[in-house]
Amino acid sequence: MLKNDTDSKRTIGLTGATGIGVGAIVGGGILALAGVAFSAAGPGAVAAFALNGFIAILTALSFSELSALFPQSGGTYTFAKKVLSVETAFVVGWVVWFASIVASVLYALGFASFFCAGAATLYSNIWGLPPIWMTASVTQSTLAIAASCFYTVGLIRSNRGGGKWSNIGKVVVFGILIVGGFIAMRSMDLTTVAKKFSPFLPIGFQGLISAMGYSFIAFQGFDLIAAVAGEIKEPQRNIPRAMLLSLSMALCIYIPLLIVVTVVGAGPGESVIQLSAENPETIIARAAGHYLGVPGYWLVLTAGILSMLSALQANLFAASRVAQSMAKDRTLFRSLEAISKRYTTPFNAILATGAIVIAILMVIPDVAAAGAASSLIFLVTFALAHVIVYLARIRSGNSRTEFRVLFFPLIPVAGGLACLSTDRCFQPWLSSRSVDDDFPGSFP
After folding, report:
1. 87 partner at 20 to 30 Å CA-CA among 121, 257, 287, 404?
2. In 293-409, which ranges are continuous DSSP H helix?
3. Residue 429: pLDDT over 70
């Protein structure tokens, strides 16, 4: 029934690789954490997402060179194994695996939150006030666990992680939201629009850093392409292209959408900060309901469910491949290396990953907490990737690959410092301040 295959068959092309990135990046993070970012930075959340996108692009360039140099599955773990010591690679592997697991927890909870919000709204429209259990944390945790089980089983049966149709569906929905928002803005003069962005940073630069720390996970996902590099065709060409295409698509959606929410998302006399404090997890849906009416609200809920599920699938997919790579090196249990003869998938690694996700879901029922934990962990691993690409370049000398970071060593140094700065500035802010000190409301 089983076979150990040291070389995974390469079956994923550029479209499939880009789909993995888009599935993990686009939609889930911004829908789950936009409210948190707006609460921390006000209209400055637009700048927070733009700066995070810039950091992500710098990091993707370093990932691209490393993936071209070492086109095997495992992502940052594989890079550390090739360039650093075995001991360091062991630690990195556990951190990277756990990072994708926590991201899976975030998106499973995000799906449950959007599903419960939609169910409660539908119930109230038909029968009146919904029962408390419909939106209770235990209900959301149960739905999150069910979704995780569903995709764990699905990934055992399929060697794909992109979620093609859900990706197409959510991109179309986001396009409608953005176009509808700009149409609504046509009736507003520039002075009115400018007032919506004032004050831009209600509590200053520290709020911007806090928003960046909470929401960086919204750009996580391009690294999952490197995590499954061993299954991608022509990895030296397709991996860099897929990473940059995924991030470009995310930026083209995120920035216009946040501008629309800031300008036309809140009602008369209401600010985006107040809206986010009252509805942190569904701020985009509430905003769309304001300028597009009831159809807008349901469009966002639909996009949210699709986004969360596709991101959950992509993170489970990539995390299982990291676990498989570690098992091959005996830094995880050898049994996790096993490949299903029928489905050609690392079913033990998938089962182990899914089981840990479910266990964490029983402990962390909070979207914001999962988002903050994921962002912090990924910022550390991304900073490490910049260090590794620097060491790999200076050790390899003039050896050429099909992709090399330009302006070396400026980009790896700048990217690494940006990741560490966001991470280190965010942690004391998170531990020492209360959102209630500055805003009428709290994080979810």
Report:
1. 404
2. 294-328, 347-361, 367-396
3. no
Rounded to the nearest 10°, the torsion over CA 287, 179, 294, 119 is -70
In a domain, 4, yes or no: no
Q: At what angle do helices 76-83 and 294-328 cross, to 10 degrees?
A: 30
Angle subtended by helix axes 28-41 and 367-396, to nearest 10: 100
How far apart are the C-alpha atoms of 414 and 175, rounded to whole Å? 33
Torsion, Cα of 267, 273, 274, 280 (10° steps): 100
Helix, strand, coil percent content, the chain, rounded in steps of 5: 75, 0, 25
Say if pTM beats, i.e. exceeds, 0.85.
no
Tokens of 441: 């409301």
Q: How many domains does one find in the chain?
A: 1
178: in domain: yes
Sign for the pseudo-dihedral over CA of 421, 424, 430, 432: negative
Answer whether residue 60 shows pLDDT above 90. yes
- List the CATH number of the domain containing 39: 1.20.1740.10
pLDDT tens column, 217-270? 888 888 888 888 888 888 888 999 999 999 999 999 999 999 999 998 877 777
At residue 160, the pLDDT reads 58
Q: What's the CA gap between 203 and 123, in Å, rounded? A: 38
Q: Is residue 1 part of a domain?
A: no
Mean pLDDT, to the nearest integer, of 348-371?
82
- CA within 13 Å, CB half, 359: 8
Q: What is the pLDDT of residue 428?
A: 46
pLDDT of 59 strictly over 90: yes
Cα Rg for the chain, rounded, in angstroms?
Answer: 21
One-letter amino acid of 116: C
Which residue is associated with the tokens 């830094």? 331
What secondary structure does DSSP assign to 102-116, as a single string?
HHHHHHHHHHHHHHH
CB 36 within 8 A of CB 24: no
The reply to whether 443 falls in a domain is no
Structural domain boundaries, residue 199: 9-437
Determine the Cα–Cα distance for residues 252 and 50; give it in Å rounded to an integer: 10
Q: Is the pLDDT of residue 164 over 80?
A: no
